[in-house]
Amino acid sequence: MSRSPVELADAPRDDPAAAAELWRHGRVLLVDERGRTPAAPSGALRWWEPAELGNRPDAVLLGVHEGIARWAVRTPARDSGPEWRDLRLLGDWLGDAEAGLLTTAVGLLAWHDRARYCAVCGAGTERVRNGWARRCGGCLHEEYPRTDPSMICLVHDGADRVLLARKAGWPDERFSVLAGFVEVGESLEGCVRREVREEVGVRVSGIRYLGSQPWPFPRSLMVGFAAEADPDEPLRPADGEIAEAHWVHRDLVRKALEESGPVHGIRLPPGISIAHRMLRGWVLRQG
């Protein structure tokens, strides 16, 4: 979901005439309140002609791809059926452009659902800039879509073992790398050190940036890192947060990535996630 080639098209957001033209010749994605959209059995998204939907002042402009404006509108969940699937199910099937468009649609529409009142004075807000801002009807304060930065870190021993953990409340076999939200005044690297220490009790070094992924559940940006830790340092899973943590050999990780089911009691994140790609990259690097 971090590979989108779509142009976000900032200029038409403030130009009603340009936006109207983009709407007239654009394509529209329907997204229900659960973040689902209609898709073909192959995973391809279904796009509507604007004329099929009539006047939709609630439409949000996702961007422009291959000269065609892409929009999204909210539809009630009661109007959706079995062909409606969410981003978690569709992510592995979608191409770069559609993955990015659906990610933007889910995140942007979810923000509108939660930003109907002004954070300054409490009055109602209205959507402006073709869905990329909301303006207060009382004090005229403007709010913009929010993204919460979160670090996700692949901790390894510098050789053939990686640290995997199972969060409290997850199914018994579900494991992943460590992650946590960045706090106010904290750097990304500082978040890596703090979260790993808090969650499993070990210290890391050699922190290295790997990549990022927008994660609209509901509005995170996952920033990926790798770091080294001493496997002889005792693991102390955080009570109530981490159910268990283990050092796992590369060969077992490789097998678990290849299988859809659990391998020796370990099921890894699906291919849509940055965690999966981080683990796969570590396995392929052989060091």
How would you describe the overall organization of this protein?
The chain has 287 residues and is α+β, with helices and mostly antiparallel strands. The protein has 3 domains: 11-114, Alpha-Beta Complex (Nucleoside Triphosphate Pyrophosphohydrolase); 115-146; 148-285, Nucleoside Triphosphate Pyrophosphohydrolase, CATH 3.90.79.10. It is built from 7 helices and 14 strands. Strands 11-9-13-12 form a 4-stranded mixed β-sheet, with helices on both faces. A 3-stranded mixed β-sheet has the order 1-4-3, with helices on both faces. The protein starts with 15 loop residues before the first helix and ends with a helix. The mean pLDDT is 94.
**Averaging pLDDT over every residue, what do you get?**
94
* Stretches with pLDDT under 50, minimum 5 residues: none
The number of strands is: 14
Strand-residue fraction?
Answer: 25-35%
- CATH class division of the largest domain: Alpha Beta
* Structural class label: alpha+beta
What is the percent of helical residues? 10-25%
Q: Rounded to an integer, what's the Rg over CA atoms?
A: 21 Å
* Topology as a string of helices (H) and strands (E): HEEHEEEHHEEEEEEHEEEHH
| CATH superfamily membership of the largest domain | Nucleoside Triphosphate Pyrophosphohydrolase
Largest sheet: 4 strands, mixed
Determine the oligomeric state from the structure: single chain
Q: What is the strand arrangement across the widest sheet?
A: 11-9-13-12
**Helix count, DSSP H or I runs of 4 or more residues:** 7
* Number of structurally distinct domains: 3
CATH topology of the largest domain: Nucleoside Triphosphate Pyrophosphohydrolase
